[in-house]
Specification:
The chain is α+β, with helices and mostly antiparallel strands and 155 residues long. It has five helices and four strands; from the N terminus they run αααβαββαβ. Strands 2-3-1-4 form a four-stranded antiparallel beta sheet. Strand 2 and strand 3 form a beta hairpin.
Protein backbone atom coordinates (compact mmCIF):
# COMPACT_ATOMS: atom_id res chain seq x y z
CA UNK A 1 0.00 0.00 0.00
CA UNK A 2 1.19 3.52 -0.75
CA UNK A 3 2.23 5.78 2.14
CA UNK A 4 -0.65 7.40 3.99
CA UNK A 5 -1.36 11.07 3.50
CA UNK A 6 -2.08 13.30 6.49
CA UNK A 7 -5.85 12.76 6.22
CA UNK A 8 -5.54 8.95 6.19
CA UNK A 9 -3.18 9.22 9.17
CA UNK A 10 -5.69 11.40 11.03
CA UNK A 11 -8.52 8.97 10.23
CA UNK A 12 -6.52 5.97 11.47
CA UNK A 13 -5.49 7.69 14.68
CA UNK A 14 -9.03 8.94 15.35
CA UNK A 15 -10.57 5.50 14.78
CA UNK A 16 -8.01 3.86 17.08
CA UNK A 17 -9.01 6.30 19.82
CA UNK A 18 -12.77 5.90 19.27
CA UNK A 19 -14.15 3.57 16.61
CA UNK A 20 -17.73 4.18 17.76
CA UNK A 21 -17.88 7.78 16.61
CA UNK A 22 -20.23 8.59 13.78
CA UNK A 23 -18.98 9.28 10.28
CA UNK A 24 -20.05 12.90 10.77
CA UNK A 25 -17.91 13.19 13.91
CA UNK A 26 -14.95 11.53 12.21
CA UNK A 27 -15.27 13.71 9.13
CA UNK A 28 -15.32 16.84 11.28
CA UNK A 29 -12.22 15.70 13.18
CA UNK A 30 -10.24 15.20 9.98
CA UNK A 31 -11.67 18.25 8.19
CA UNK A 32 -13.51 16.40 5.42
CA UNK A 33 -17.14 16.13 4.40
CA UNK A 34 -18.85 12.83 5.21
CA UNK A 35 -18.79 11.25 1.73
CA UNK A 36 -15.05 11.57 1.08
CA UNK A 37 -14.35 10.51 4.66
CA UNK A 38 -16.56 7.45 4.27
CA UNK A 39 -14.80 6.55 0.98
CA UNK A 40 -11.38 6.79 2.63
CA UNK A 41 -12.48 4.62 5.58
CA UNK A 42 -13.96 2.06 3.20
CA UNK A 43 -10.72 2.00 1.19
CA UNK A 44 -8.68 1.49 4.39
CA UNK A 45 -10.99 -1.38 5.36
CA UNK A 46 -10.91 -3.03 1.92
CA UNK A 47 -7.12 -2.75 1.68
CA UNK A 48 -6.77 -4.54 5.03
CA UNK A 49 -5.24 -1.64 6.95
CA UNK A 50 -8.33 -1.57 9.16
CA UNK A 51 -8.89 -5.19 10.14
CA UNK A 52 -11.93 -4.71 12.35
CA UNK A 53 -13.50 -2.83 15.20
CA UNK A 54 -13.28 -4.14 18.74
CA UNK A 55 -14.31 -3.28 22.27
CA UNK A 56 -11.52 -2.85 24.79
CA UNK A 57 -12.43 -4.80 27.92
CA UNK A 58 -11.23 -4.35 31.50
CA UNK A 59 -9.32 -7.39 32.75
CA UNK A 60 -9.99 -6.26 36.32
CA UNK A 61 -13.76 -5.95 35.82
CA UNK A 62 -13.87 -9.37 34.17
CA UNK A 63 -12.17 -10.86 37.22
CA UNK A 64 -8.71 -11.50 35.78
CA UNK A 65 -6.30 -10.68 38.59
CA UNK A 66 -3.18 -12.22 37.06
CA UNK A 67 -1.47 -11.46 33.76
CA UNK A 68 1.46 -13.73 33.09
CA UNK A 69 4.05 -14.22 30.39
CA UNK A 70 5.14 -17.72 29.50
CA UNK A 71 8.41 -18.16 27.62
CA UNK A 72 8.56 -21.49 25.78
CA UNK A 73 11.42 -23.37 24.26
CA UNK A 74 10.42 -26.10 21.83
CA UNK A 75 11.82 -29.64 21.73
CA UNK A 76 11.94 -29.58 17.94
CA UNK A 77 10.91 -27.23 15.19
CA UNK A 78 9.31 -29.46 12.60
CA UNK A 79 6.44 -27.89 10.67
CA UNK A 80 4.04 -30.52 11.99
CA UNK A 81 4.90 -29.95 15.68
CA UNK A 82 4.88 -26.18 15.26
CA UNK A 83 1.50 -26.25 13.50
CA UNK A 84 0.03 -28.51 16.21
CA UNK A 85 1.39 -26.24 18.95
CA UNK A 86 0.02 -23.10 17.28
CA UNK A 87 -3.38 -24.70 16.69
CA UNK A 88 -3.71 -25.75 20.33
CA UNK A 89 -2.41 -22.51 21.85
CA UNK A 90 -4.86 -20.47 19.76
CA UNK A 91 -7.71 -22.58 21.16
CA UNK A 92 -6.91 -21.66 24.79
CA UNK A 93 -9.24 -18.82 25.82
CA UNK A 94 -6.86 -17.61 28.56
CA UNK A 95 -4.17 -16.88 25.97
CA UNK A 96 -4.34 -13.20 25.06
CA UNK A 97 -1.42 -13.28 22.62
CA UNK A 98 1.27 -15.63 21.38
CA UNK A 99 4.38 -14.60 19.51
CA UNK A 100 7.00 -16.72 17.74
CA UNK A 101 10.34 -15.25 18.81
CA UNK A 102 13.97 -15.10 17.85
CA UNK A 103 16.53 -15.68 20.58
CA UNK A 104 16.60 -18.14 23.49
CA UNK A 105 12.88 -18.86 23.55
CA UNK A 106 10.72 -19.90 20.64
CA UNK A 107 7.38 -18.50 21.83
CA UNK A 108 6.06 -15.90 24.25
CA UNK A 109 2.52 -16.36 25.50
CA UNK A 110 0.57 -13.67 27.34
CA UNK A 111 -2.22 -15.22 29.40
CA UNK A 112 -4.75 -14.13 32.00
CA UNK A 113 -6.34 -15.97 34.89
CA UNK A 114 -8.42 -15.06 37.91
CA UNK A 115 -5.68 -15.79 40.46
CA UNK A 116 -2.22 -17.29 40.87
CA UNK A 117 -3.58 -20.77 41.63
CA UNK A 118 -5.60 -20.79 38.39
CA UNK A 119 -2.62 -19.46 36.43
CA UNK A 120 -0.43 -22.18 37.89
CA UNK A 121 -2.98 -24.83 36.88
CA UNK A 122 -3.12 -23.37 33.36
CA UNK A 123 0.65 -23.68 33.00
CA UNK A 124 0.89 -27.15 34.57
CA UNK A 125 -2.15 -28.73 32.96
CA UNK A 126 -2.43 -27.01 29.59
CA UNK A 127 0.68 -25.09 28.50
CA UNK A 128 3.20 -27.72 29.60
CA UNK A 129 1.19 -30.35 27.68
CA UNK A 130 1.19 -28.48 24.36
CA UNK A 131 2.91 -30.32 21.49
CA UNK A 132 6.70 -29.95 21.39
CA UNK A 133 7.17 -27.94 24.60
CA UNK A 134 10.61 -28.53 26.13
CA UNK A 135 11.13 -25.71 28.62
CA UNK A 136 8.93 -23.07 30.28
CA UNK A 137 9.78 -19.90 32.17
CA UNK A 138 7.07 -17.63 33.54
CA UNK A 139 6.94 -14.06 34.75
CA UNK A 140 4.06 -11.95 35.97
CA UNK A 141 2.94 -8.42 35.37
CA UNK A 142 3.25 -6.34 38.52
CA UNK A 143 1.74 -3.27 36.86
CA UNK A 144 0.59 -2.47 33.35
CA UNK A 145 2.39 0.71 32.36
CA UNK A 146 1.08 0.89 28.80
CA UNK A 147 -1.53 -1.36 27.25
CA UNK A 148 -1.47 -2.52 23.67
CA UNK A 149 -3.23 0.23 21.89
CA UNK A 150 -2.72 2.88 19.31
CA UNK A 151 -0.25 2.03 16.59
CA UNK A 152 1.87 4.85 15.18
CA UNK A 153 0.73 5.85 11.71
CA UNK A 154 3.26 7.39 9.38
CA UNK A 155 3.94 7.87 5.74
Amino acid sequence: MKPFDSIDQAILLALQRDARQTMAELAEQVSLSQSPCWRRVRHLEESGVIQGYHASLSRKHLGYGVTGFIHLQMQNHTPEVTAAFEREVVALPQVVSCHNLSGNYDFLIEAVEVDLESFSALVRNKIRCLPGVKEIATSFSLKEVKAAGILPVGG
